[in-house]
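## tool: complex_structure
## caller: assistant
## args:
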Amino acid sequence: MIEIADLSKRYGRHLAVDKISFEVARGEIVGFLGPNGAGKTTTLRMLTGFLPPTSGAARIAGHDIFRESLEVRKRIGYMPENVPLYTEMRVKEYLRFRGGLRGMGGSHLRKRLGEVLDLCGLTDVRRKMIKTLSKGYRQRVGLADALIHEPDLLILDEPTNGLDPNQIRAIRRLIQNLGEKHTILLSTHILSEVEMTCNKVVIIDGGRIKAADTPENLVNSMRRAGRITVELQAPISIAEPLLNSIDVVTKVNSQSLQDGWNRFTVFVAPNTDTRLKLSNLAIENRWPLRALSRGTGTLEEVFVELTRKD
Amino acid sequence: MRIFRILFFKELKTYFLTPFGWLIMAFAALMQGFVLSTTLEAFENESQNESLVHVTFNSPLFWFYFLILFPVLTMRLFSEESRSGTLEGLLTAPVRTWQVVLSKYFAAYVCFVILWIPVFIHFKLFTIITDIPPPFAPGELYGAMTIIMLMGALFTAFGCLASVMTSSQIIAGVVCIGILLVHFFLGLVTEQYGDTIAAAPVFNFVSCQNHLQAFSRGLLDTRPFAYYLATTSFVLLLTHHLLDFRRWKP
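## result:
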């Protein structure tokens, strides 16, 4: 659905996006993560044709974003950051206007208007002026605007920014439902949201892609997940070489505890689980074992690990 | 064409479904009436060599309010959208840039044309109320209206250009009035330096004061038509490219 190849954007001397490449397949919900100023919004603006890339190329549904901008824009529904709306228009009037710009009209537009008002929970406020609406409702109007022409691809720039927890849940549920029919690329820095809704994550920092994978794989491949703590009643001099001899183990730290037990911190390669081997080792050598645990990471820790400045 | 129509009516609605358009109309009607009544007073006090239409439209007071109309009408058009961010939504919808530019331009221009309906009524009322033959020929009124429409076309385009350059309405308004004043004073150069200077034909050619004088005598000249329409197209082209620039600047 989206193919990005070496896309860069330079603002004067500042390189905002530096040769990023990734792909989004049809039907995926992709979370686009990064700290503030990482280049998320710039990337999304390039994809929607609002800003041209300095170099590189991207295709959406097979159309080049630069040369066939109009074709691309027909196929996407874009909700910009902070959801700018014509505040002096009424909700239904605004959505009818935006539908018209997408070439809709007549009974088709009328039908879709009813559907998106219903879907986004706007039916009660459809005659209100947008300037009288709360932030949560404006966000929903923006989403309805992006959805009205049933686009193949939805691009949402921080869809839950500034909402209260209930509203965030409602929007999240809406995005999950939409994911059944649409491909979605959403940028955010709220990680719990990504863990719950997305089946792929792209992490960007300083204009470069740091990781692109499923949330589970990212969590499993992080440093903490490769650290196992074992507490044994075994002499350090014997146990340490034995632990080191396991093939995936890269390093072992030992520490004697006050009560006669020893704690071993075993570093193993990412994406492996060595706990069974360790317990078998303890059984074979008849070492009493009282603790065996693997560091569990969260996406938040992955994010911090990848984007930390130090 | 459908998208142009949708954009055009949306713009026109923002003029007339908000107090904004009505305030401008009230201001214009008030000033038009004020200029006409001071002219009538002048007619009462001493005899005039020119017709009522000619004197009305060639007073300094006329230029004063006429030039103010354009920044007020146009400063909001693009700058407000780029300030509030709605330009992003507009330009990422499948619309062409020329549709955006022309729809905004024509909405402002139509609004400008509507402002001149009261003038017609004023001059018609003169005959109805006083029951004496009007002190002007119909051709003079139509001529004056024609040149005002032509000048309006160009000056509205200047306003669009000023508005697309900035995201601040105030700056857009100031730039617009600046362009209009420079254009206005170009026409006065020959009054200052005489018709003998080498560039005098150029200054006379672009002089809106000269155009208005000729047309409000009922003298139709094709040169101003060419000047205003060609320059309007050029300024709109510039506006289009400035707006489109964000799409292809490296």
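## assistant note: The longest strand of chain A covers residues 14-24. The interface with chain B takes residues 10, 45, 48-52, 54, 69-70, 73-74, 76, 78, 80, 82, 84-88, 97-98, 100-103, 105, 145 of chain A (CB under 8 Å). Handing back to user.
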